[in-house]
Design a protein that fits this description.
Elements: E1 2-4, E2 10-15, E3 30-34, E4 39-42, H1 48-58, E5 66-68, H2 80-86, E6 90-93, H3 106-114, E7 118-121, H4 122-125, E8 128-133, E9 136-141, H5 142-145, H6 150-155
Parallel strand pairs: 4-5, 5-6, 6-7
Antiparallel strand pairs: 1-2, 2-3, 3-4, 8-9
InterPro entries: Competence_DNA_uptake, RibonucZ/Hydroxyglut_hydro
GO molecular function: hydrolase activity
Organism: Klebsiella pneumoniae
Length: about 160
């Protein structure tokens, strides 16, 4: 399904398919937003099974400038096929810092980086903001904008305290 909002944006709902019996994470909504110059693929929590089904149906419609990394970068998602098919410039992962599941997975991070994606993850960068304009797109993160605390500098601790 595609829809425009009259301001030059095109929204494509790619998943779940009509009549889908997918459950749990694989029932997440996947939407691609395109302004004619740049695009972002919002993937929710889909895992490999849903990725593969979606790829087989929408092969030509998945290429996107940016991707919101599926399932917080879990080992159960971001298959090599999806990463290759999207062929994006940047990957954005949302996860809590020091989470019990250790997401995003090191293997997933490497998969994106090896394909040339710039990697952004909230555990390291904090809030991530993407700005789209007539000149293109930019990514800003809270930690890049805020100076390290004075006592980190004083005691020689890394800026991210990690």
């Amino acid at each position: 399904m595609s829809a425009g909002n009259g301001q030059g944006l095109n929204f494509q709902a790619l998943w779940p398919l009509p009549g889908s019996t997918a459950k749990g994470n694989n029932h997440s909504c996947v939407v691609r937003i395109d302004d004619g110059r740049s695009s972002i693929l919002l993937t929710g929590d889909i895992e490999r099974q849903a990725e593969q089904a979606m790829i087989s149906r929408y092969w030509r419609h998945l290429t996107s400038t940016l991707i919101q990394v599926p399932h917080h970068g879990s080992n159960t998602s971001s298959s090599a096929l999806l990463v290759r098919r999207v062929d994006g410039a940047a990957a954005l992962a949302s996860a809590s810092r020091y989470n019990a599941w250790r997401m995003p997975s090191y293997k997933v991070v490497q998969r994106y980086r090896q394909r040339g994606y710039r990697w952004f993850a909230t555990p390291q960068q904090g809030q991530i903001t993407v700005v789209f304009s007539a000149e293109g797109w930019q990514i800003h993160s809270l930690r890049d904008q805020v100076l390290p605390r004075w006592y980190h500098q004083w005691f020689g601790a890394p800026a991210d305290n990690g």
